[in-house]
Structures are given as C-alpha cells and as structure tokens.
Write a structure and sequence with these properties.
Multidrug-efflux Transporter Regulator, Chain: A, Domain 2, alpha/beta, globular, Rossmann fold
Length: about 300
C-alpha cells in the first residue's frame, strides 16, 4: 500500500530531503501523487530507496546508480562488499533526538570513546547524510547553547568538538570519488577560528560526490584563492560563524570574490552569513543558511 514520504523516510532510513534530491536531480524514482499533490511511495519505491542507500553508503555514487532498474540494483548490491553496515539492529535503534541527548551526556562525562561510538552508531542507522542533518548539526547547536548558558564546561565543549572533528575528517568506509568529480575548496577566512561548520561542508560535499580540498580554518583569502585557481576548482566554500557584521570579514568576502575567476562559484554559509548577505547584496556570492541549503547549492553547482 502506498505511503507518504514521512513513512517512506522511516522505512528506508533516508531523510525526506535526500529522497527529494534523488527524485528531482537524479530521477531515482517517480512517486505517485494524491489529488492534493502529496508524494506517495509504493513498496517498490521503498525497496529502491533501501537498495540505493546500501549502495551509496558503500562507495557507489547516486548519479551512477539512480537510473538502474530495481533488479539491477539488487544484483549490484549482491556483488558489493558491504564495508559499512546499513542498519542498526531494531533493539538498538534510537531516534535522532535520543542520539543528541546521549552525545551531550557522554560529553559531560568526558567519555570520548562513548561519544565516538554513539556517532558511529548514528551513521550506521541513519546514513552519513542522516547523521549530519539529524545528529551532528543539532548536537553542535545544543552544545554551543549549553556552554553559553553555563550547563557545560569549556572542557566538555572541547572534547565533543574533538570527537566530532575526528569523525568528520574520516571518510566513510568504502566511499569513492569519481575521477572527474567537481572540486570544492573549503576553508574559513583569517580571523575565523571555528572550523566545525567548514568540516560539515566538506563531509556533506564528499557525500554528494565532490572532490574536496580542505584547507582548514583561519587562512588569508589570498591563500584560499591561490589554491582554488591552481586546482581549477569548481567552487570555493567559506564558513563564517564569528564575528558577526564585522567590517574586516566583510572586506575579506568582497576580496575573495575579486580574487576568484569569473566562472568559479563562491559559497558562503555559517551562523554569521546572513548578516553579511545583507551587507553585500551586490557581490556575486551563493549564500546558504542551513545544511539543506548547502545541499541544494552543491547539487546546482555540480557539472
């Protein structure tokens, strides 16, 4: 019996956003529509989504497998060494909110091993994109708010950041990047020391099939642009979290755009990005305000 996207998402372990992207950009499936235009997914569609999830989590790019028939997907899965487990046992399954709370609790106990295992379990259960969207991003926000309100010590925040950074810097087992994949340069400008946003950008781009060159935080825009030009990159992504509405950062973003070739995209996101967007309306920058917006920008920029 056909089911709505909310239930299909739970059944296959993919976020609703990823399902929509796979439909719209890659024509992976064509759900039926109700009279009110709601997507409805039959058993065959859910089966395809589960197979595509297995394949993409084990090194296959969605653009290469989306057009295969269900029978061809099944055959490919049978021939694919499953490096990454694709589902947690039902008795160990957790809701994303529970993962976030458990991760905060592990951070308070300075339990780096426990925190690492929780995040790895979230990746197995939710997939890389589900982990990024539903666990990592909310976790970073909650830890930041708790630290500001005094319910977490700076050392709690540091241990959580260290484990998250380690996980985001480590490619998903079995993942591969196509030889002719578009390249993204990721960094933060000089004076911007917060790098978790940039690391999330890098991890998300890799998962969408980009080749990523990660330069890290606090780098002069002249050095970022030099790398981008030398690498013939498709785009540059900068994360700006703090300070907000700073004339110095504003000028660096303006200068970054001037240094890049005309056809090279500049993507800017992060907590402080919206303020700079209002101050730089004339500068040709793709502004993103959330991880979903980043996904849209990356998919739009893929060649």
């Amino acid at each position: 019996m056909p089911c709505p996207i909310q239930l299909a998402s739970k059944l296959c372990g993919l976020s609703q956003h990823v399902i929509r992207i796979w439909e719209r950009r890659y024509n992976a499936l064509s759900p039926s529509r109700t009279q009110t235009n709601r997507r409805m997914y039959c058993d065959e569609a859910v089966k395809r989504l589960k197979l595509l999830k297995v394949l993409t989590e084990n090194g296959h790019r969605i653009g290469r497998v989306a057009g295969l028939s269900t029978a061809e997907l099944e055959e490919l899965v049978s021939k694919t060494p499953l490096v990454l487990a694709t589902a947690a046992p039902a008795e160990n399954a957790m809701e994303p909110e529970a993962f976030v709370e458990a991760c905060v609790a592990a951070s308070k106990k300075y339990d780096s091993d426990g925190l690492r295992q929780l995040l790895l379990q979230a990746r197995r259960q939710l997939g890389q994109r589900g982990m990024l969207h539903q666990v990592i991003c909310p976790l970073i926000v909650q830890i930041g708010n708790s630290w500001q309100h005094g319910s977490l010590r700076p050392s709690h925040e540091h241990i959580a950041t260290s484990v998250i950074r380690e996980l985001l810097m480590t490619p998903v087992p079995g993942s591969q990047t196509a030889a002719h994949a578009p390249e993204l340069i990721v960094a933060t400008p000089a004076g911007e020391l917060h790098e978790l946003g940039a690391l999330i950008v890098a991890a998300s781009a890799r998962d969408l099939g980009w080749h990523v060159t990660y330069l890290g935080p606090n780098l002069p825009v002249e050095e970022i642009s030099a790398c981008a030009v030398a690498r013939h990159a498709t785009a540059v992504a900068l994360s700006v979290v703090y300070p907000e509405n700073c004339p110095v950062i504003e000028e660096k973003l303006r200068r970054m755009r001037e240094l890049l070739p005309e056809g090279m995209r500049l993507i800017v996101g992060g907590r402080a990005a919206e303020g700079y967007r209002a101050r730089l309306p004339e500068v040709r920058i793709q502004w993103v305000s959330c991880l979903h917006g980043l996904d849209e920008a990356l998919c739009k920029n893929q060649r």
